[in-house]
Amino acid sequence: MKPTILAFSLIAALAAACSPATEPAKAQAAQGATAPATGNPAGSQASGAPLQSLPDFAAIAEANKGAVVNIRATVSAPKPAAFGGRGQSQGQGNGEDGDDQDDNPLNEFLRRFGMEGGQPPVPREGMGSGFIVDANGVILTNAHVVEGADEVRVKLADRREFKGKVAGLDHTTDIAVVKIDAKDLPTVKLGDASKVRVGEWVVAIGSPFGFENTVTSGIVSGTSRSLPEGSYVPFIQTDAAVNPGNSGGPLFNMKGEVIGINSAIYSRTGGYMGLAFAIPIDVARNVEEQLLKTGKVQRGRLGVGIQEVSASLAKSFGLERPMGALVSTVESGGPAEKAGLQPGDVILSFNGKKIETSSELPPAVAQTKPGTKSELEVWRAGKKQTLGVAVGEMKNESVAKSEAAKPGGEDSGKLGLAVRPLTPEERKALGGNASGLVVERVSGPAAKAGLRRGDLITAVNGKAVKSVEELRAMVSKAKDNVALLVKRGDATVFVPIEIG
């Protein structure tokens, strides 16, 4: 069975889960609350080695359980189809489809007992978690927990229940803000997700399968994770035991501070398998503030298409190792083009933040306020350059869209390609100013790299190519690898090819 990322919807009666699982202790205690060390007897420890003590999860659970809530969201069941005389119909029993539904005595019987269509109309109910960030009733949770709900019920740890109002939600980050009419509520303390370290202990509190105030623990397995679907959230990965109902619940560090919102699991079975993901609290807080202030969320954008820098591409562009985000396309008239960014540039940092992998760029840009003057450090023609860019605003589009590397091509006997220039008709169809070489036949290294007949080669190692002669000259100067900029349909990506 193929593993999938699951965000269990409350509305569908399953809430996505992300809560840490207990593991063998090997971290430090928080705020001086520790249990006695166990393990080696006195004198058996190596000289000078510090004693290891177990973390006290009980202190964190006791201090924060009052601020964690259980959320139930209900969606009214849609009116089922009537039972027609010639089988079930999509009509509503008014005869519009010519079935004379109201004349069927069985329909009248079913209607009297609220069972039109053969089954009673049962509302759907889902469950999830949340936590109070403002004593006046402001709660953070996942958007998928409350989205589309006709009624939201919030239950506190002291068993009081309130009707919740969705003050705003954001699909992109899966964050929602819920408000209840209450005062002087206990709140959580928010931490700094940027200081989270791989290997440190974390604690989650939530309502898996409806078991309220369940406490689980684990460690941080990774940071700045990008899920397969792609997103603008640099997820915190934990090995926490999380299940449906934990969605929207808090993830605490050992200081008792919330560092994330449990949101999804990676699973082959639909249940916990050791891979859980939490939304960093700084991302959530930014969304919360914008939703409460303006009712919408603004995100920055550059207007570029990017891809991962593989070992082959790094060698082609003269980088000492794979790093950064390789620019494959630049939107005409966009912020990146105005800043002078070009296809073939490798973005090494954004506003001083190093970009090790391409997945780190979209979240960094998205969290930047539109209009902000920012700096890009790029690798171009074997040298580092700094470019200034005024970040634009995302309009339901990608910020710096990550594109999967797709086959492309090039020309020369070394590559196993036969190419030709664009015809006037082809150039006109591509916008009039298009240039490049059309792949006619593919074999050898080019075929191995995935090039196809009909691909359009527009550049080699970041330099535009317009003729077969230019292509041959560029390839002849290359040593082991070349990177071809290839356009196929609407996608344009760099494709590394080992020279034969």
Give an overview in words.
The protein is α+β, with helices and mostly antiparallel strands. The protein folds into 3 domains: 1-31 and 54-79 and 104-297, Beta Barrel (Thrombin, subunit H); 300-402, Roll (Pdz3 Domain); 417-498, Pdz3 Domain (Roll), CATH 2.30.42.10. It is 15% helix and 35% strand. It contains 10 helices and 33 strands. The strands form 7 sheets. Strands 20, 21, 22, 23, 24, 25 and 27 form a 7-stranded mixed beta sheet that branches. Strand 30 and strand 31 form a beta hairpin. It is elongated.
Task: Summarize this entry quickly.
15% of the residues lie in helices and 35% in strands.
Number of domains: 3
Shape: elongated
Residue fraction in strands: 25-35%
Radius of gyration: 28 Å
Report the CATH architecture of the largest domain: Beta Barrel
**Class from helix and strand fractions:** alpha+beta
